[in-house]
Amino acid sequence: MADAEYKSPAPLPHAQAKLITSWEAGWNVTNAIQGVFVLGLPYALLHSGYSGLFLIMLAAALCCYTGKILIACLYEENEEGQLVRVRDTYEDIANACCKKLSPSLGGTVVSVTQVMELLMTCILYLVVSGNLLSHSFPSVPVTERTWSVIAFVPLLPCVFIKTLKTVSKLSQLCSLVHFVILLVVMTYCLTQTHQWSWAKLRLSTEFEGFLVSVGVIIFSYTSQIFLPTLEGSMKNPGEFRCMLNWTHFLACVLKTTFALTAFLTWGEDTKEVITDNLPSFLQALVNLCLLSKALLSYPLPFFAATEIVHACISRGNHPNYSSPLFALGVRGSFLLLTLLMATLIPHFALLMGLTGSITGAAMTFLLPSLFHLNLKWRNLSCLEKCADVSVFILGFLCSLAGIVCSIKGLLEVFGGV
After folding, report:
1. What is the DSSP letter of 274?
2. Rounded to whole angstroms, what are the CA distances from 174 to 6, 28, 63, 288, 402?
3. DSSP readout, 26-74?
4. Tally of CA atoms within 13 A in the half-sphere of 156 that contains its CB
5. Region label for 326, one of left (φ > 0), alpha (ψ between -120 and 50) or beta (otherwise)
6. Quick one: DSSP state of residue 323?
7. Cα–Cα distance between 225 and 32 in angstroms, integer?
8. pLDDT (0 to 100) of residue 204
9. Is the pLDDT of residue 335 over 70?
10. β-strands 75-77, 6-7 pairing
11. What pLDDT, on a 0 to 100 scale, did the predictor assign at position 350?
């Protein structure tokens, strides 16, 4: 049910067709928080045990909470005591918090951080696509980089995506493919219940392995980058909080059930990507589904990143920068950049882990809690202030641990240690 106290500026009549429903917004959030990280959750349980199950539920609650407080920062009370949307983007929130230092400093930092995170996500989908095609057709004498180029071809129409409504349709298909993957894996696991043993699940004893599990679990729920745009594009923004609750609750249930059934099936033999544990006849089918999911996941971060870049470039209201041809050029350039980086950068997974530990934690935990404290301090209760401070500290610790583990991995790869 809609929250009556939330009021957004009335959309123009011609813009109604571009607005999305709560269901469409929910599919986009589901697409963001049900990504490829889910396939690593059983492996995370191998290192974290019972504490991993608790972390899956805690991460869902924390990410849902930071999503809500981030959206709360878009609103201010008017003279009648109603909450009115006075900001539109993550950058606007950052500028409002940093206006005493510089009118645009906060927005610039957030924009750069967002684009880095989204760029890395897009590149990851291309790398994963190349890897999946390589494993699906091992007899074909083609390198993973060449497979990535082949996977890039179906993504070329992304340059013509102009509205979030189109992205929502693709996210819906992506989520359906994701559910098929989970269904196939869990159905196979249920046929192996005679091998299950709860003794396989225990408390974590390896601290470094536990830290890796924390990173995998927490960052499988991140969607904060997209939330201001999604909420602003909804026909009824008052339904946003309810939508966020349901998407995170269902994600928590699915992730917990999937991770537990898969781990109980393979125990100590659980691999980093759970599909590698499947029999060969199922592995080929699931890999093709994963390829479809990776390609259908690409448009959401791609659209968000190009919108940010185009908005930053065209801020001066120059007529050339607002033309459709210029927007097409921005999207085309970004598309080619992701392909170039996916094929040229060595050890991309470790570099992404390092970048994700910095930008992911900042966008998901550090900045939402910091901005909420800054903008809403007078209206917050002691409990809410403590919650924001706790989230900030937890985000800082997760980020620090992830940075240390990623740097250690890079040093080992390059022979530094």
Report:
1. G
2. 31, 9, 21, 13, 28
3. HHHHHHHHSSGGGGGHHHHHHHHBHHHHHHHHHHHHHHHHHHHHHHHTT
4. 5
5. alpha
6. S
7. 10
8. 57
9. yes
10. unpaired
11. 60
Q: Pseudo-torsion of CA 61, 76, 310, 165, nearest 10°?
A: 60
| Residues 6+ away with beta carbon under 8 Å from 109 | 94
Report the distance separating Cα 132 and Cα 148, nearest Å. Answer: 9
Report which secondary-structure segment, H or E, holds 202.
none
How far apart CA 6 and CA 116 sit, in angstroms, is 32
- Measured CA to CA, the distance from residue 97 to residue 106 in angstroms comes to 7
Q: Locate tokens 């259908």: which residue?
A: 296
Are 69 and 268 spatial neighbours (Cβ–Cβ below 8 Å)?
no
Taking the CB of residue 374, how many other CB atoms lie within 10 A of it? 16
Task: Render 210-261 in DSSP notation, one character per residue.
Answer: HHHHHHHHHTTS--TTTHHHHHHTBS-GGGHHHHHHHHHHHHHHHHHHHHHH
Q: Is the pLDDT of residue 124 over 90?
A: no
Q: Which letter, b or e, does each residue of 132-162 get, where b requires 16 or more Cβ atoms within 10 Å of its Cβ?
A: bbbbbeeeeeeebeebbeebbeebeebbebe
Q: Which two tokens stand for residue 405?
A: 């583990």
CA distance linking residue 411 with residue 395, whole number of Å: 24
